[in-house]
Amino acid sequence: MSTVVRGVGTSAFGKQSHRGAPALLRDAVTEALDDAGTPTTGIDAVFAGTVFDGPGTIQRCLQTLGIVGVPVVTVENACASGTTAFHEAVEAVRLGRYENVLAVGVETMTHTFSSSIVPEDTDREGRSGMAMPSIYGMAAARYAAEFGTTPEQLAAVAVKNFGNGVHNPRAARRRGVSVEEVLASRMIADPLTVLQCCGMSDAAAAAVVGPARNAPDDVTVRATALRSGGLWDHRSTKVWGWDVVHDTAAAAFETAGVGASDVDVFEVHDAFTIGEVVTTEALGLAPLGEGGRLAAAGVTTLSGRSPVNPSGGLLSRGHPLGATGLAQVAEIVWQLRGLTGARQVDGARLGVVETMGGGAAGIDGNGCVVAVLEGAA
Amino acid sequence: MTATTSPTTDEKPRRDAPPEGYDPRPRVTDGIEPAVVGTRCTACAHPTLEDVERCPVCGGPTRPTTFARTGTVFSGTVLRIPVGDRQPPISLAYIDLDDGPRVLGHGQDPERVLRPHERVTLVGETDEGDPAFAADGESR
């Protein structure tokens, strides 16, 4: 028996700390339950993702919906927390533990931080001031030196994703930008400018997962894979994150029996423009070092061969860590149902979600999840 | 920012010291030729920044060591936003020490991006206690 996504939902994304996690989570879960046709009393178990929201956040939120008296497991896996919750929900159904599982993620970034994320001071690199923009800035600098990846190629990713996000009413930043505007914006971590970095935002997202039930709007989960990164040290020739995305995607593709070229639409982790470049290579859309050409050449645009981030991605939607992965799942589900209007990828039937999170020094990422989803024929 | 060895007297509290005083950063030896301290596997020779008892690669026993002062930049950037109490600019780079691990270091000059493949030398610690590197040819 296959596992399906029965319903999805999200709150709006943006700076809205005044609303608090319970209200944001209610928005997402109520929409997902209605979409699935599942009453709150029908949920057997909950897997949740959040990184910085405090202890008890998920139960504090769920009780306001009357979702009580069931197993609730909260996971933290950096930027991949939401998709890790999704992966665990799918596995729980696949293994027969539960039949109606809620996967949910929430993050109130602007409640936790006054500006950007402060790195973990018990980490040897976080303690040395290694903020996330700097690790991606280093990846971009390495790509420029090794492969000749240009600032214009990086900016093309932002132009594409912001352009897609204009058509996403839930996105936090909805305005088109030009290559010139991206490159002229404030420098954050050389060579990455502020319009190449995702913004802080607050949101929740959810999905209801269960066994296949012959409902036409359900989306089949062909595969999910979850891995932590390997050792990343002086022996590593690739930039941080490349290998863990590659290996996780390879495992998911093998289970699903498909390859990257079979996929109609991707939602990937573009917290920074270089992140999409590296990820799309690691997923198999371009040879090593040539990912910079994809957006600039139109390969990953809505009408391109392999559309990436039709939602606007993290760059446009925002990146509330726990919510991000399930918002990616929601976008792919809507794409596979043909519901996304001006940002719709025509005829999309097979979609992929990829999320990679980091912050622990010495490894190639804390965790990566890749999911392969299929819509009805 | 100065790149001097840590004083043993007249120490002032670090600006961003955590309450319990745990400092996970690599230790740098005092002296005119400072070096990063770590461990090396006695079986496979894998170098590690952490003070580990067993090699994370092969599981073999380790012994304490210091690593070469010189190395090559894997990549670097200058961060231009505050990070906690730290104020920009902050020059950060991954340095592959010649006989040792990849270590996150600070550029001695906070405005200068340390470029991939540049040769660098450990010159001590920053005022905040981070390993500090200067590019070859850069005044120290």
TrEMBL record, chain A:
Keywords: Lipid transport, Lipid-binding, Transferase, Transport. Its EC number is 2.3.1.176. Residues 14-209 form the Thiolase N-terminal domain. InterPro entries: Thiolase, Thiolase-like, Thiolase_C_2, Thiolase_CS, Thiolase_N. Gene3D superfamilies: 3.40.47.10. Residues 244-359 form the Thiolase C-terminal domain. It holds the Pfam family Thiolase_C_1. PROSITE patterns: THIOLASE_2. This is propanoyl-CoA C-acyltransferase. It comes from Actinomycetospora endophytica.
UniProtKB/TrEMBL annotation, chain B:
SUPFAM superfamilies: Nucleic acid-binding proteins (SSF50249). Residues 9-30 have a biased composition (Basic and acidic residues). Residues 68-112 form the ChsH2 C-terminal OB-fold domain. Residues 1-31 are annotated as: Disordered. It comes from the Bacteria. This is OB-fold domain-containing protein. It comes from Actinomycetospora endophytica.
